[in-house]
Structure formats: C-alpha cells, structure tokens
C-alpha cells in the first residue's frame, strides 16, 4: 500500500497550480492591455486629455506584460540574466516613445525623459522598494560587491554621457561639434555596455546565498508568497517568446498614439515639456521596473530587486541614450545630442552619487527609501514650471 500520496497540502497545491498555464492575474493583465490598446486607437483625436490617459495606461500595461514574459523566460535562462534581460526589454516602450517624440520635434521631452528615467529608477522605484520591503521585512540586505559594481558602472556611464554637456557649458572647442562628439560618446558607451554583459552575468550567477536570507522562516514565507502571487504557473517557451513579440509590436503602435496625444494634453493641463518628460514619460515607460522592483522587495528578494532596478538606468545611460543619438538622423525629425541643460545634469549627477553611497554598505531600510522618494518629489516639483 502506498501512503505517500497525502504528502501534505502544500505539495498538492503546488502541483495543481503548476497545471495552469495562465494565472488569473496573467489573464487580467492581458485583457486589460488588449482593452486599453483598442480604446487608445478608438479615442485617437477624441479630445485633449482622454486619449493621453488611455494610451498612457495601455503603455504601462504592455510594459508589465513584457516583464511577465521575461519572468517566465528567466526560468530557462538562469538568475544571472534576469536583471539585464528584464531591464533591456522593459525599456523598449520608452525607446519607442522617445523615437516618436523626436519625429514630432519634442526634443525637450526626450532629453528630460532620459534623465527622468535614470532619476525615476534610482530614486523613486528603488526608494519605494526600500520603503515597502523595509516596512515589511526590516533591514534589507543585498550583495555589496554587486551593488558597488553596478553603481560604479552607473557613475562612469553618467559621467561619460554628460561630457558633451560639460563641453558646451565651458565653451570648449568641441562645443561647436556637439553632434559629432555625441556620436563618438554614443559608440563608446555602446562598446562599454557590450563589454559589461559577460561581467554582469558572471557576477549574478556567482552571487552566493549571502544575499538576503535573514531567517529560514522569512525565506520560506517569501517563497510561499512568491508562488502564491505567481499562481505557480509557468508559461511554455513558445508562449513567452510570442508574448514578447506581440507586446513589442503593440508597444510601438501605442507609443505612437501616446506621443500624438502628449502635446495636446500638455497644452490643456499646462504641463511643461521638462516635467512631462521627467515624470510622465519616465514613469509610463518604466512600468516594468516600478512593479517588479517593489514586488521583489516586498518578497524580501533584495538582490533581485536591486539588479532589476539598477540595471534599468544603467542601460538607459549605456544603450537607450546612445541609440537615440545614432538613430535620430535616420528616423527623421529632430537630431538628438547628449547636451542636457544644467539643471538636469546637476540633479542626475548628485542623485547618482547619493544612491551609490546609500547602497555601498549592502543594506537599506524603509527610512532611506522614504528619503529617496522625497528627493525625487522635490526634483520633480522643481521642473513643474519648466
């Protein structure tokens, strides 16, 4: 007689959950993304504010679906690829938004969106993650070496990205060649990104279990909750790849609608180009990191949260901004250079150094998170008037 079957409710529940391909939340997100994408197409040109709000929600939902598809692909690719892959694909909607904005000659929106995305991830998303995770789990601990490696790359890449701006401010000889200097900088940054990928994956894979496991009880509690929230379901490889392809195409289409609705909405609500780029475009385009980073911190997975959140601004500085410099002459519209106004340069420089200091000790708490969010609100308020 076999009495091994009643091995316990947890095992049975896990097996039942694994039988499902799509969880309830998957279906909800897919239905919501489809509904808002259709609504964005139908409301195009139907007023100043409604098309803008509908298309912004559609962009955020599509970005969240990209994040879910990457989550399921990461099971096959290994933990080391999660931060890099999720950040790369999570920035796709923002890349499309910026390209369409350049075609509409909204250069100020694009420059503010680039800096806003870096600030949004460094201060708002990381701060919210520290706050939520710290309030629930106490001190959040993560790998010091990984945090230092990412932030060292972040400081160097932001510094390199800002070289054309500095040349312009001090009226150096290179100031009259800002387009050429921006293209040289863009190529250098892309090469640095290519060289950083193997190192990032090695660090991630070799990360020991010293990351964040305060107690066995908290670890099992976190795993149980993670399984419960994900519904224990696992997408087949074909479904995950198809979802990435479909959401990528839809994100490009909805981004065009979003940019078309942006200018009338800004005029109607008296929003400056700088604030629209720094806050609205940055938050809508980074919905993946907003949701995933906070969720991982809530589940006490501080290392994964830090990797996902910090890889995003790193890739914006190393990939997205350089790509826009090289693509802008090809897509038509305004030419994009890496010359930013002094206020944007100052805020991103100071914020990057502040966050590097905060994460260098390998731990954080809710108060540090609240302070980071507060700094982001102050910076956003300073750009409300332009």
Write out the CATH superfamily name: NCX, central ion-binding region
Q: What is the beta-strand fraction?
A: under 5%
Low-confidence stretches: 4-18, 203-231
Question: How much helix is in the residues?
Answer: over 70%
Question: How many β-strand runs?
Answer: 2
Name the overall outline: globular
What is the topology, as strand order, of the major beta sheet?
1-2
* Reported CATH architecture: Up-down Bundle
What assembly state would you assign to the polypeptide chains in this entry?
Answer: single chain
* CATH level-1 class: Mainly Alpha
Give the helix/strand class. Answer: mainly alpha
The name CATH uses for the topology is A middle domain of Talin 1
Number of domains: 1
Averaged pLDDT: 80
Number of helices: 16
Task: Give a quick summary of the entry.
This protein has one domain: Up-down Bundle (A middle domain of Talin 1), CATH 1.20.1420. The chain has 16 helices and two strands.
Description:
- With 386 residues, the protein is mainly alpha-helical.
- It has a single domain, classed as A middle domain of Talin 1 (Up-down Bundle), CATH 1.20.1420.30.
- 78% of the residues lie in helices and 1% in strands.
- The protein contains 16 helices and two strands.
- It has helices spanning 9-18, 24-42, 50-77, 82-90, 92-103, 107-137, 144-161, 163-169, 178-205, 216-230, 237-269, 273-285, 287-298, 302-331, 342-359, 366-382, and strands at 140-141, 363-364.
- A two-stranded antiparallel sheet has the order 1-2.
């Amino acid at each position: 007689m076999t009495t091994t079957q009643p091995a316990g409710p947890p095992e049975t529940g896990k097996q039942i959950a694994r039988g499902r391909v799509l969880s309830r939340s998957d279906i909800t997100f897919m239905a919501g993304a489809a509904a808002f994408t259709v609504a964005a197409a139908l409301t195009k040109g139907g007023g100043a504010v409604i098309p803008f709000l509908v298309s912004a929600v559609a962009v955020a939902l599509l970005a969240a679906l990209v994040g879910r598809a990457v989550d399921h692909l990461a099971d096959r690719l290994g933990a080391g690829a999660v931060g890099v892959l999720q950040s790369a694909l999570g920035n796709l909607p923002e890349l499309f938004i910026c390209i369409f904005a350049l075609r509409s000659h909204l250069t100020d929106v694009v420059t503010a969106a680039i800096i806003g995305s870096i600030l949004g991830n460094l201060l708002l998303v990381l701060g919210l993650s520290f706050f939520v995770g710290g309030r629930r789990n106490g001190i959040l601990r993560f790998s010091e070496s990984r945090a230092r490696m990412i932030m060292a790359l972040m400081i160097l890449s932001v510094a390199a990205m800002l070289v054309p701006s500095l040349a312009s401010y001090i009226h150096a000889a290179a100031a009259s060649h800002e387009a050429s200097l921006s293209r040289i900088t863009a190529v250098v940054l892309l090469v640095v990104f290519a060289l950083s990928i193997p190192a990032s994956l090695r660090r991630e894979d070799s990360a020991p279990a010293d990351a964040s496991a305060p107690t066995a009880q908290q670890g099992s509690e976190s795993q149980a909750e993670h399984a419960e929230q994900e519904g224990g379901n696992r997408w087949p490889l074909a479904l995950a790849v198809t979802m990435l392809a479909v959401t990528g195409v839809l994100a490009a289409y909805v981004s065009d609608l979003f940019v078309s609705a942006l200018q009338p909405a800004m005029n109607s609500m008296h929003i400056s180009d700088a604030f629209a780029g720094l806050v609205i475009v940055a938050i809508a385009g980074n919905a993946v990191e907003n949701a995933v980073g906070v969720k991982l911190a809530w589940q006490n997975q501080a290392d994964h949260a830090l990797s996902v959140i910090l890889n995003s601004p790193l890739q914006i500085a190393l990939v997205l901004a350089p790509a826009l410099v090289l693509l802008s002459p090809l897509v038509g519209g305004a030419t994009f250079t890496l010359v930013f106004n002094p206020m944007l340069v100052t805020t991103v420089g100071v914020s990057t150094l502040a966050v590097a200091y905060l994460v260098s000790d390998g731990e954080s708490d809710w108060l540090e998170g609240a302070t980071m969010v507060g700094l982001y609100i102050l910076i956003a308020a300073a750009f409300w008037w332009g």
